Protein 1
Amino acid sequence: MEPLCPERRFLGEQGMAGGYADYVAVEEDNAALVPDSVSDEQASIAACAIGTVLNAVRDVDKVAIGERVLVTGAGGGLGVHAVQMARLAGAYVIAQTTAADKAPLLASLGAHDVVVSTRGEDFSAKVRERTAGEGADVLLDNVGTPLFSAMRRSLGVNGRWILIGQVTGDREGFGFSDTRIIDSLASNQEEQDHEQEKATTEIDREVQGASRAGGDEGR
């Protein structure tokens, strides 16, 4: 897998300058073709924010229809896409955020429930209340150690903990046997091509819908 390549390097990181340049020269296999119907703004987040979450939901965890998925840090760049991906996979989505003003947005993106908590608060009781006391089947963790205890208590028996983001460099010790913890990596070339193709399909669908609506209004 490309994200596991020991020689991987990123523009703007690891001594590679040029992330803000107008033009950058890279080898062909390090670039992804962007369809004309996908904007530069959309393409810029396909590999990281969208690709990482797509990899977590579809390939790493294989979220199934009807599973209860808790998304932490749901109001962030990874979280908003995790909510949408989990909903598209057919899951019952619980979004956790510390920003109360983002609750309506998260609901509009597909969250069935939004848990608003203060920073450092143990929100596990709220999650269990929304899952009939059983806890979440899947945790899409976009925050890491700051929410460790609350996330652990929010998971049900044999729950799957998918590590996506880590906002601090802190470490946390733990010991339990009824939870599976899995790390999700960034997307590879094949996945990026699929993301661009899917984006083109969605845009075409929106355009066709808008055209039909316009035609109906004309009548």
Protein 2
Amino acid sequence: MLGQMLRCNRPSHHSPITSVEPSVPVTDLIRVTILAIVQGIAEFLPISSSGHLVIVGAMLGELKESPVLEIILHAGTLGSILVVFWRRILALLTGQYRVIGLMIIGTLPAVSVGLTIKKMYPELLRSPCLAGVMLIVTGMLLIVLGRMKVSEGRYPKLSMFAAFVVGCFQAVAILPGISRSGSTILGGRMMGLNREDSLTFSFLLAIPAISGATVLAVKDLLDESAVEASDEIHVLLIGAAIAFAVGIAALKWLIRWSREDRLHWFAWWCIPAGILAMALTWNEMPLDAASPNDEATPAKLSPGEGETWFEILSPEPAADEES
């Protein structure tokens, strides 16, 4: 069942994405492990988990969304936040009610923008080319972050307007390739927060944001009746555990580098990665795109015997000319 979840439509000859069979088959467990590691690292480091999952997922043949896998990986990284920031979360629940209000205000832009894009432009969330462009934008934002002066503001004293502005930065991160942590930390610094408090408020905002994304994924899961994957739940739980453990390590790394004002170093990963992704996918077309003359040759929807779903980005060989 999990193999069916992870499958994608095979591209037509219009797409630059072609298929070759790897020397070692990529199993479901390996796919989930790779995606869980990417999620755990990129969810928290300012390099965009959505962008990397779109790009890596395309290379693994994961072009079609997997609601179950999405839920599991988000749950794992959400657990990482709860573990690392448990003292601050406990403080919220035992008296810092104003901060809860700030979190609600800061979440509203992401909710409105996220629901709109998911409903009207879902293809944007799965575009490797767009992810490449936005990774370059993320790199530029991190360079700006590295040049900002240090402020001394604390997040409990943040104004409602400032919380809304930081939330707008989070809303922009709906696009694949824009780092949620990087953009919200930059927004917090612009609103006068110090390094540690801008990071803390960024991940307090992540709790309702990631929880909301998980709830939406659960809704999609129920709508699509994909609960049939329960017989492969052990593979998914391994993915959740990996995302959780890697997420804790990534969060501690992020906290340390934020205190040392080195987050802008990640720009030199984002920009080359974005350029490479753009170079490989610039001429991409939707999998269902076809010219009028190609109506009789629809895209192949399932693998043949001996074939795999492993996909890599490589030039499409030229079609033979008719004699």
Protein 3
Amino acid sequence: MTSLRKTVAKGGTSLQPPPTAGRARPSATPRKTNRLDAGAPANPAQAAPQAMALAGQRSLRLAASLVAWYRLHRRPLPWRQASDPYLIWVSEIMLQQTQVATVVPYFERFRKSFPTLKRLAQAELPEVLEHWQGLGYYSRARNLHAAAQQLTSLGQTALPSEVTELLKLPGIGRYTAGAISSIAYGRPAPIVDGNVTRVLCRVDALADCTSLATTQSELWRRAGELVTLAAPGELNQGLMELGALVCTPMAPDCPSCPWRPDCQAHRQGRVATLPIIPKKQAPERRRSLAWLLTRPGSLLLLQQPLNAQHWAGLQVLPYLELHGAETLEQAEQRLAASLGLPRVAGVTQSWQLAHSITRYRYALTGQQRTLGGNRQPAGASWVPLEELAKAALPAPHRKLVRSWLTALEEGS
């Protein structure tokens, strides 16, 4: 845009408006005006360039005010203290579908155990999954490990800086690639996630559903424009932080927002109604059964294959999902048959808990039963009680194991 001047400095790019920005150019020949055409361009052909100039000035204000706000109000999160692209990558993967407060202790523990890309690549997958248990969405951990091995096999000791190269790695999509490239390397790569979508839809009063391809295209275009107008890493983190702390889904703190003067949704009184998001599909209710098969001092666990539909690569309790109107007794018989166990002792203890997997809501019944003799189903192993803490179990099964161990302690 010819009406803007770029000033490139170390650490980022900032734009300053020309001295005449925001002022109407004086007409060579003064003319009379009336209320209808007062303030209108002298020549209709000038309208489009002037509109573009005003839009450019607004974008400059938005970028500058956001970065200034971010520098004052950003949270002191551990990954923001790191300049290592590897650690920034780990944090971005952990933050997918997971709240910041939940991620912090997991990130600290992961960083201590796998401080470098090489160390992560050398680790066995069960060790990585053990550090991930409780975060959910375990495919993230598997992809993180696979990407580290892919990079080291190519002789690389660091992540690539360009989005096109980052997109070639398992588990890295457009948003994550943009975040890594901008935050770790200062590249002007845009990002669009839930927080950014909400912020941009409100500031520009985008009233179309966010699931539409045209809306997504406009969001990425707008994010791509803004990220070129300030330090890319700070601009992108500012967008995310603004959405997390101020421009929240419910009860946004508009008086504290640096974008309030330029926010079209605020001006139009539409903050509460934007963005327009598609309705969520109602969760589907399902039932499942899990067994805690025990013998003195140990618990039976199964190893899920890497191609399993759920909890791939993790250790699990023997379990199954109930079919339709199948009774619990019928499910018990089916689970015993799947394990090759003609007879299993009666239930010693039982628990009920609810959990979710994507859009499914499960009512899980956990039963403790004693398995006598040396019987051991194929693919299973007896894990000593003192080693259970190291087992990479999915969250609902870990809760059942903890309930059982608590009962053991209380009964001893």
